[in-house]
């Protein structure tokens, strides 16, 4: 049983070498179990990332350890009042629980409940969202009383399988069907002069993503948030690439971005692709996605695959991805549960 274990805060600013060694040991086990095909984020990169505080997101880390061995972690985040999304997202917390495989089904996961509830109260959050992509996670979250809200599909494209002539055709067709539209490519940090325009259009586009039944507020990108993102990328050695389409009047009508990192040279991550609703149906989505994959091939000859995530209900995006050769790799479900339900679960445990 849980016995003498206590939930304690893991503070990245104060953690000594022993605490980090404990943390990384469990993190490596988690990675091997949950993400076996992915390159492992190096320990030093993780430490830099976790030590860098964000103006816009409060991050919380907790551990349960016994005899110097970390048995379980709980991590979560919520928006800060400085975040422009605070007004519509302040009730939401997002979390993740991990229990060492040999310590499962002993109510270790369940024993996080007082910490989770206490933290939610401290930050004024009334709903927590947690994702699962394996049976134990689904079973645990159902036991908790959480409801499935959004199905997300991670798809992967093996670059060795890409039909390059099809990609070249998509680029030619895109340009032919929209002769007034220009394609722009930015490698590395986006120049500051386009931040206001880019932030405004990205905000519009991100809010067109289908989130099914997820309780989620507005997504708001600002130049200040782009600055923070760029500082973080620079510290971690991450390089971003952006492909945009711009209409004759200067409006950004479509965007797609990928990121590369030295510790995952074979694995390119594609974050967001969006086309303005009034510019849809002209092949811009295919144009920017094809231009990006051709660009990746040129920049990173040793890259092996591109991964991306979409809501299972996002038919237009999935259609383009499948036509490019992206294959479904993993399906995750985002669950949410209210604090009242968690308190009831705790009372009846
Ligand atoms: C999900 C996870 C955190 C559960 O931790 P745990 O300590 O094993 O869970 P608990 O013992 O506290 O389980 C509480 C209840 O959840 C349900 N449950 C948990 N794991 C289950 C499983 N593998 N199969 C069926 N039911 C399960 C049971 O109802 C259990 O109560 P019971 O044992 O009295 O029947 C753990 O399996 C894990 O770390 N998985 C990998 C990470 C992950 O998927 N995280 C996302 C979800 S939080």
Description:
The protein is about 35% helix and about 30% strand. The protein is globular, with a radius of gyration of 21 Å. The protein has a 12-stranded mixed β-sheet, sandwiched between helices. The chain is α+β, with helices and mostly antiparallel strands and about 350 residues long. Strand 4, helix 4 and strand 5 (about 125-130) form a beta-alpha-beta unit. The chain has 11 helices and 12 strands. The longest helix has 18 residues, at about 15-35.
Secondary structure elements and pairings:
Layout: E1 7-9, H1 17-34, H2 43-51, E2 57-66, E3 69-79, H3 86-89, E4 92-99, H4 113-122, E5 127-132, H5 135-144, E6 147-158, H6 164-177, E7 182-187, H7 195-206, H8 223-236, E8 239-246, E9 252-260, E10 267-275, H9 284-299, E11 305-311, H10 315-324, E12 327-338, H11 339-347
The structure holds coenzyme A.
Features:
single chain; 349 residues; 12-stranded mixed beta sheet; alpha+beta
Mean model confidence by pLDDT: 97
The dominant shape is: globular
The major sheet is characterized as: 12 strands, mixed
Category by helix and strand content: alpha+beta
How would you concisely characterize the structure shown here?
This protein is α+β, with helices and mostly antiparallel strands.
């Amino acid at each position: 049983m849980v016995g003498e274990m206590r939930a304690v805060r893991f503070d990245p600013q104060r953690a000594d070498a022993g605490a980090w060694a404990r943390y990384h040991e469990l993190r490596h086990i988690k990675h091997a179990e949950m993400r076996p095909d992915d390159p492992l984020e190096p320990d030093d990169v993780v430490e830099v990332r976790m030590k860098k505080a964000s103006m816009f997101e409060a991050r919380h880390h907790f551990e349960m350890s016994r005899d110097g061995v970390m048995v379980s972690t709980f991590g979560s985040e919520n928006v800060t009042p400085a975040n422009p999304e605070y007004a519509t997202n302040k009730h939401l917390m997002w979390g993740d629980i991990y229990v060492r495989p040999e310590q499962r089904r002993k109510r270790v996961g369940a024993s996080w409940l007082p910490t989770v509830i206490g933290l939610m109260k401290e930050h004024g959050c009334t709903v927590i969202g947690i994702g699962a992509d394996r049976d134990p996670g689904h079973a645990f979250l159902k036991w908790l009383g959480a409801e499935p809200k959004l199905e997300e599909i991670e798809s992967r494209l093996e670059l060795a399988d890409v039909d390059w002539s099809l990609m070249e055709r998509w680029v030619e067709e895109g340009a032919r069907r929209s002769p007034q539209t220009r394609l722009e490519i930015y490698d590395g940090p986006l120049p500051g002069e386009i931040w206001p325009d880019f932030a405004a259009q990205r905000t519009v586009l991100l809010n067109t993503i289908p989130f099914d039944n997820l309780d989620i507020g507005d997504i708001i990108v600002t130049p200040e948030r782009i600055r923070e993102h760029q500082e973080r990328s620079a510290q971690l050695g991450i390089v971003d690439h952006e492909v945009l389409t711009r209409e004759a009047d200067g409006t950004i009508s479509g965007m797609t971005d990928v990121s590369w990192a030295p510790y995952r040279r074979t694995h390119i991550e594609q974050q967001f692709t969006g086309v303005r609703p009034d510019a849809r149906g002209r092949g811009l989505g295919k144009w920017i996605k094809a231009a990006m994959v051709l660009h990746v091939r040129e920049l990173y000859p040793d890259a092996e695959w591109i991964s991306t995530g979409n809501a299972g209900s996002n038919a237009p995006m999935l259609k383009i991805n499948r036509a490019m050769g992206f294959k479904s790799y993993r399906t995750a479900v985002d669950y949410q549960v209210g604090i009242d339900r968690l308190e009831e679960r705790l009372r009846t445990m």
